[in-house]
Structures are given as C-alpha cells and as structure tokens.
Design goal:
Elements: H1 6-22, H2 29-52, H3 60-84, H4 96-104, H5 113-127, H6 134-155, E1 160-166, E2 172-195, E3 226-245, H7 250-277, H8 283-306, E4 318-323, H9 328-331, E5 339-343, E6 346-347, H10 351-360, E7 364-370, E8 379-384, E9 393-395, H11 412-430
Antiparallel strand pairs: 1-2, 2-3, 4-5, 4-9, 5-6, 5-7, 7-8
Helix pairs in contact: 2-3, 3-6, 4-5, 5-6, 5-8, 6-7, 7-8
Organism: Heliobacterium mobile
Keywords: Membrane, Transmembrane, Transmembrane helix
InterPro entries: PDZ, PDZ_6, PDZ_sf
Length: about 425
C-alpha cells in the first residue's frame, strides 16, 4: 500500500471551501442558496405568525444555523466523496436537477436526487447509455443522503412549524411540520486530460492501493500526447428535509428518522461499491435508490398516522403546542408540551377559555401549569406583557377545530388536471 497523507485531502477540501465562500462574485452559488433559504424560512415564520396570531420571529438565527450546519455537512460530504472516489466527468450528473424538477411537477416530494438518480440510472441501463455511470450517480445520491441524515440528527428539529392537521381518526390534532434547508459546499473530483507539452503544473498525490472504492468512469484521451489528471472541483448542493411529527416530539422524531435514513444510505452505498466491481449488479442500486426511499417515506407517514397523537386536547388543562421565541409566555417559563391549568384564577380547557381568562388581566397574567404535561407538581408563574401584545403560546387544537394546513404534495401537473376536470364537469352540468 502506498503512503497516503490525510493532510493533503484536508488541505484540498479547505482550499475548495475558500473558493466557494470567499469569492462570492466569481462563485456566488453558496450565497445565492443561502438567500433562497432565508426567503423560505421567512415564509415559514410568517405563516406561523398568520396562523396563530403570534409575534413574528427573526429569521436570522435559522439562517445562521443553516449556514453553520451546511459547512459541517459539506466537510463530511467532501471527505466521503473523495474517499469513495465519486468522480464527476460525464453528462449524467447534468440531468439530475432537471429530472428532479420534472418529477416535482408530478408530486413535490419527488423532487429528490434519489428518484432523479434512479430514473437516470434505469434509463441508462435500459437504453445502453454508456456515457452515464450508474455507480457514480447513485454513489453521489447515497453520500448526499448520508450527509442529510447527519444534519437531520443534529438540527432537523430546530425549525419546526406548529400545525393543526387532520388525523386518520377523524379529528384535528396538533403536530409539527419539520422543514430544514442547508447549503452544502462540496469538493469532488473530476478527470481532466492534459497535453504533455501544455506546461500546466500539477502535483501527484499518493493514494492507498484500495482507492478508489467506486471505480471512476473512463474518459477518451490519447495516452501518447495526454495525461489524465484528477482535479478537485468545488460545487454547492442544496439539501432539504421535510416531515410531519405527530406522535413524538420533534427532536425524538428527527433523530429516529435520521437513523433510518442513514441505514438506507449505507445500504445504497454498499450496493454501489459492489456494482462498481461487478457491473452486472448495477440494477440493484438503480432500483433500491428510489424504491427504498419511497418505502422509507411511506413507512414514516404510516407510523405517524397510525400512532397515538401527542398533541391533543386534555381534560386536565390546555396543552401547549408551541411557544414563540422571546414571547411573554417563554419568559415566564412555559415550554411546548406543558399543560396550562388556570390563567388569572380561571380554569382553562380550550382556546376560548384562555381568551376569556386573559381579558380579566391583559397585562399581568397569573398562570398555573404542569411542566411536561404529565407527573410532577403544578407550578405558578407570572407573565408580563403589553395591553394588546400576544401571550405568545400556541395551544393544541380544540376537538371541533378544522385543520389549518393539508400536506398533499400535489405537483403542477396534477393541479392543472384537477382544475381542468372540475371546469369540464361544471360546463357539462350547465348544458341542457
């Protein structure tokens, strides 16, 4: 085995990050993605304010957190891609984003590299497109999902939107729409054919005998006059995570889901490595990528809809679904999951009870609550707020409340088809 200096790999990644982060005019992608993320988070926080009449929260903590964790994910992803030998040289990678966008027109949750990579890989196998490397594309998909799993575990619960949704039991329950985005700076490898007499300097880096784990694709070149050189290629990916937590707290839900996604990614990565050395197995990662991802999503959705909802009305008091950052309720010590027993001396069991009790003393609010909602002892606290200021808490829905948001994930094509069929039947009904 040839000596391998890990500092060379680390230095390559750091240099790529410097290019992507410190030269925004020449390489604006990272900062453009961060701006898009800021707009998405701003929309999410405005939705929370509009739905529950709470004070709008600042978007900057979410944006800064997204950037910080994106850098962590980028370092992990870059290390893994170079370690496994993901090499971007052929046109197949250019199809990933367009195919993902096209799939989103059918259903928004299909805008994922797992589905796009699977479609491209299956098409390459069926039609014999030699310019598309199945193992390289699906290897990229596996590593990006592994990075996503790590980021979900660390921060997927941080930016959650409280929601009222329809449950399969025919009632409205409280829950959290988990939505996180991360800009991921990456340093991957590409192959370049350089003429012997070009005068371009390049440094040879020794590699161990087992590298690469994923066989790089061939590129056409003339060995008599050219040399093939592996060169680092800095680029930026945008990763997003969306889910619905009904039966567990957001942190617990995210960490469970992240472990499942990590397992999926490791299985896919193993299939890619096997197919790299035995091309006859290329169909396995091409099929497992989209089908395994779809099975994981359906299983998670079924678990949430068939489990016992966590945030529902309680006969003992008014359960708190969420508390606004910096709100009077948060300053008074209230947290999501607490049970509010009385306000200003009046028992509260519903949002109507809360509104009535707040009218007795709008500025100084005396509250009795049970931390965590179960066990322990009831505590008393006082919240000070402005006369017309919101208390800043979001209670669970009352049994008769309608759902505020429906998550259907319908794409543009299905929306257009639905509208066309509705208009068609309406016109036919008017005809004698």
């Amino acid at each position: 085995m040839v000596d391998f200096n890990g500092w060379d790999l680390l230095n390559t990644i750091i240099q790529g990050f410097e290019i992507l982060l410190l030269y925004p005019l020449e390489y604006p992608t990272f900062w453009v993605f961060l701006l898009i993320i800021a707009l998405l988070y701003r929309r999410q926080l405005r939705m929370k304010s509009d739905l529950f009449q709470v004070k709008p929260e600042s978007v900057w903590p979410s944006v800064l957190s997204s950037a910080m964790y994106g850098l962590v994910g980028g370092f992990i992803g870059s290390f893994l891609m170079i370690l496994f030998g993901i090499t971007i040289v052929e046109s197949g990678f250019l199809y990933l984003l367009p195919v993902a966008i096209a799939l989103a027109l059918i259903n928004t949750r299909y805008m994922c590299y797992a589905y796009a990579g699977g479609v491209i890989s299956l098409a390459a196998i069926l039609f014999g497109w030699t310019e598309v490397s199945v193992v390289q594309i699906m290897g990229l998909v596996a590593i990006l999902h592994l990075v996503e799993a790590v980021l979900m575990f660390l921060s997927g619960h941080r930016d959650s939107l409280p929601v009222y949704v329809a449950h399969r039991r025919g009632m409205t329950v409280g829950g959290y729409h988990l939505q996180s985005f991360w800009p991921i700076p990456l340093v991957v490898l590409t192959m370049v054919a350089i003429p012997h007499n070009s005068g371009i300097p390049f440094q040879e880096i020794s590699t161990p005998g087992w590298w690469p784990l994923i066989t790089p694709p061939d590129i056409p070149y003339n060995p008599a006059v050219e040399s093939v050189v592996l060169s680092p290629l800095p680029l930026v990916a945008l990763l997003g995570y969306g889910d619905l937590a009904l039966v567990r707290q957001p942190r617990v839900h995210c960490r469970r889901s992240s472990l499942m996604l990590a397992g999926y990614s490791l299985i896919l990565l193993t299939l890619v490595v096997l197919a790299s050395h035995m091309p006859i197995l290329s169909l396995l990662p091409a099929l497992f990528g989209p089908l395994g991802h779809e099975a994981l999503i359906l299983w998670t959705k079924r678990r949430e809809m068939q489990g016992t909802p966590l945030y529902v009305a309680s006969p003992r008091g008014l359960k708190i679904l969420d508390v606004g950052d910096g709100s009077p309720a948060e300053k008074a010590g209230l947290r999501a999951g607490d049970l509010l027993g009385s306000v200003n001396g009046l028992p509260v069991r519903s949002r109507r009870d809360l509104a009535i009790s707040l009218s007795w003393s709008p500025a100084q609010v005396e509250m009795e609550f049970l931390p965590g909602g179960t066990g322990g002892f009831w505590k008393r606290t006082t919240a000070m707020k402005g006369w017309n200021e919101s208390l800043g808490l979001v209670p669970v829905p009352d049994p008769e409340d309608p759902p505020l948001i429906r998550f259907e994930g319908v794409g543009l094509f299905r929306n257009l088809w639905r509208r066309w069929t509705q208009r068609f039947f309406q016109r036919n009904r008017k005809k004698p």
